[in-house]
Amino acid sequence: MSAIKCIGILTSGGDAPGMNAAIRAVTRSAIYNGMKVKGIYRGYRGLITGEIEEFKTQNVSNIIQRGGTILKTARCLEFKTPEGRSQAYGTLVREGIDALVTIGGDGTLTGARCLAQEFNYPVVGLPGTIDNDLFGTDVTIGYDTALNTIMECVDKIRDTASSHDRLFFIEVMGRDAGFLALDGALASGAEAAIIPEISREQDQLSDMIEFGLRKSKNSSIVLVAESEVTGGAMGVAERVKKEYPGFDVRVTILGHLQRGGSPTAQDRIMATRMGVAAIDALLEDQRNVMIGMQSEQIVYVPFSKAIRNEKPINRDLLNILRISSI
Ligand code: ADP
Pick the residue with more confidence: 54 or 247? Predict the structure, then answer.
C-alpha cells in the first residue's frame, strides 16, 4: 500500500486543450488506487490562498471534450519567491496532501521542481502546453489540437490569398520554439516557415524569396513563429516591403484562438495515458519527474532534464517543406 493517501492536482501557466482530459485521468486513476484527490484552483496561486476542493469521480464527468481547464489557471509571481513557496507548502501540509501533480509548461515545471527540492516533497509533472517546447517528450498535451486549428485557419486564408494573388505572413504561437510554425506549414501546404531555431543561423527570408516565391507562384503563404528572433509576422512583412517591393503583402496574427477548442482524439488519448502514468509514477515512488511520451511509450523525465535542455526541431522537415512547396 502506497504511503500516498491524498494527492493534489493543479494546472498552471498557459492553458492548453487536453488539460481537462488529463485532470480527469489523474483524478480517476488516483481514486481507483484508493487515494483522495484535491483539486487546487488557479495554479500555484490557489496553493498559496488555499482555494481547494475535494474531487470525486463526478467532478470530472463530461469534461474530456472541453478545452481550457476546469481548475482554471493563473500566473503567480509570489510562488517565485521562497516565502510564497513556503506558504504553498504550508497549505499542502494543512490539507493533508501527500503528493502533487502539476500540469503546465516550462514555468510550471520549474516551480514544481523548486517546491520538490526545497521541501523534499513528491511532485510529478505533466507537459501541458501548445508550444511543444519541453525536452524529453515527443509531443505535449495541447500541441496536436493547436496544430489542427492552425491548419484549418491557414486553409481559409489560402482561399483569399489565391483569389487576390497575395503573399500572406501568418503568425503562430510557440513562444521561442518553431514547432507549430514548421508542422503547421507542412500540414497546410504553406510555402515556407520562418522559425527562431533557424533564424539564429541564416537569413530565411532571403533564402525563401530567392528559392521559391519569385519563381512560379502568384500567391504564397508563409508561417512565422512569434519570437523576438524572427520579429514575428509584422517584422517579416516590413522587411519584405522594404527589400523586395512588388509583393502584395498581408499579415494575419492567429493569436489566442490557437489555445482554444475541443481537444483532438490524439490529445485526449495522450492526456489520459499521461494522467494515469502520473499516478503510476507516484505509486512506484518516482518523484520530481515529468511524464513524457517517446515513440508511443510513456517515459519518466527528471525535471532537471525537461527544463534545462532545449528540444531540437527535426531539420529534415525543413527540407521536406522546401521540396514539397516548389
Ligand atoms: P508555463 O507553465 O506555461 O511555462 P509560466 O512560465 O507563466 O507558464 O509559469 C507558470 C507559473 O509557474 C508562474 O506563474 C509561477 O507561479 C511558476 N514559475 C515559473 N517560473 C518559476 C520559477 N523560476 N520559480 C518558481 N516558480 C516559477
Answer: 54
Place of cell 481548475: 71
The residues pairing with 40 across neighbouring beta strands, listed in sequence order, are: 52
Active site includes 131?
A: yes
CB-based contacts of 1, cutoff 8 Å, min separation 6: 34
pTM: 0.96
Residue nearest to atom 16 of ligand 1 (CA): 76
Question: What whole-number distance in Å separates Cα of residue 153 and Cα of residue 134?
Answer: 25
Query: What sign does the CA torsion over 108, 8, 258, 136 have?
Result: positive
Ligand 1 site residues (CB inside 6 A) read: 12-14, 44, 75-76, 79-80, 104-108, 110-111, 114, 129
Mutate to test the pocket of ligand 1, among 79, 113, 117, 121 (most ligand atoms within 8 A of CB): 79
Ordered by where they begin, the domains of the chain are: 6-142+263-308 (3.40.50.450), 144-259 (3.40.50.460)
